[in-house]
Amino acid sequence: MIDEQELFEHFHIVVDKGQSPLRIDRFLASKLEATSRNRIQLAAESEYILVNGSPVKSNYKVKPLDNVQIMLPFEKREFRLIAQEMPLDIVYQDQDILVVNKPAGLTVHPGHGNYTGTLLNGLAWYFGERGTVNTDDSRMGVLVHRIDKDTSGLLVVARSEVAQFRLARQFFDHTAERLYIALVWGDMENDEGTVTGDIARHPSDRLRFRVCPRGVTGRHAVTHYRVVERFGYVTLVECRLETGRTHQIRVHMEHIGHPLFGDVRYGGDRIRKGTVYSKYKQFIDNCFEILPRQALHAKTLGFIHPSTGEKMVFEAPLPHDMSEVLNKWRRFAISAQSSADS
């Protein structure tokens, strides 16, 4: 997943001493020339505009030396986007939102030097675009959260500015419901628990994150977990996110000594628990071949619909690769128990 705070632009303005009283939406529209007044008003509705630390409405009149902060969900995409036909598992859609079940291996968002083959390219085609797309077109849909390339599962896409702001508020406030299924190394000591630990980039590897040691500042992160099934050397757990930080589940599970099965970046792609026998090693290698990624799936996604106010909850079944590996572990656990009993 991507840190939700990274999906916002942050602006800080101190009002001039000679400023005459002026509605804050007009004031900010004059300061943020690339931002429409409508987006500023939506920001006020979502309490993204603070004056001297407190949220204000659009009709608030700025005063000299007011300390103004505004946060806006990213609107413009600074890249070329080429519509591409690809199979998409659309779980739900209406005029405001679209929910998609993303397969593992599909990058969500184009990055530097990688402008094709992403979920957004496929969505552009799905929405009827062809060729190079005008990425400022609101009909294209806007991501209000993301999941990692090699994580499967549910994502919601906003199809209007109003939907974007109202959904983004829920993810920012951590009121959206997100449940993940993960297979982790080791036999979890407790049936349920909570991992709390600030997360920041690893100082020696910019592609990894870590739980910060004492005295180092990071982003507050909380993951709740519950054991679903035990297989002896690995455990199937359900993780509920209270916050949404980059790689949060992967980092938190590694921190407590239970890295995700198959997670190359956090040490789960080698034997962490088990026997020394070659037969066991072959079994693990077979599992890695079936599931060449971290065993993590965004199973449940719940939020309040941005227009109707209705609570919506979606579930995505485990993908085939995870299901097959879990079945192998079930058979392995039964066999091991039979051997122990005989």
Describe this structure as you would to a colleague.
By secondary structure, the chain is α+β, with helices and mostly antiparallel strands. It has three domains: 4-73, Structural Genomics Hypothetical 15.5 Kd Protein In mrcA-pckA Intergenic Region, Chain A, CATH 3.10.290; 89-172, Pseudouridine synthase (2-Layer Sandwich); 177-341, Pseudouridine synthase. Helices cover 23% and strands 29% of the residues. It is built from seven helices and 18 strands. The protein has helices spanning 24-31, 37-45, 119-126, 161-172, 248-255, 278-290, 320-341; strands spanning 8-14, 22-23, 49-51, 54-55, 61-62, 67-73, 89-93, 97-102, 142-143, 152-158, 177-185, 192-196, 199-202, 205-211, 222-230, 234-241, 296-304, 311-315. The strands form four sheets. Strands 7, 8, 9, 10, 11, 12, 15, 16, 17 and 18 form a ten-stranded mixed beta sheet that branches. Strand 17 (296-304) and strand 18 form a beta hairpin. Helix 1 crosses helix 2. It is elongated, with a radius of gyration of 23 Å. The two termini are 45 Å apart.
What would CATH call the class of the largest domain? Alpha Beta
Q: Helices and strands: which structural class?
A: alpha+beta
> Which radius of gyration do the C-alpha atoms yield?
23 Å
Largest sheet: 10 strands, mixed
General shape: elongated
Number of strands: 18
CATH superfamily of the largest domain: Pseudouridine synthase
Give the termini separation. Answer: 45 Å
Annotated CATH topology of the largest domain: Pseudouridine synthase
* Uncertain segments: none
- Output the helix-strand order: EEHHEEEEEEHEEHEEEEEEHHEEH
Helical fraction equals 10-25%
Number of helices: 7
Query: From the 3D coordinates, which CATH architecture of the largest domain would you assign?
Result: 2-Layer Sandwich
Mean pLDDT: 84
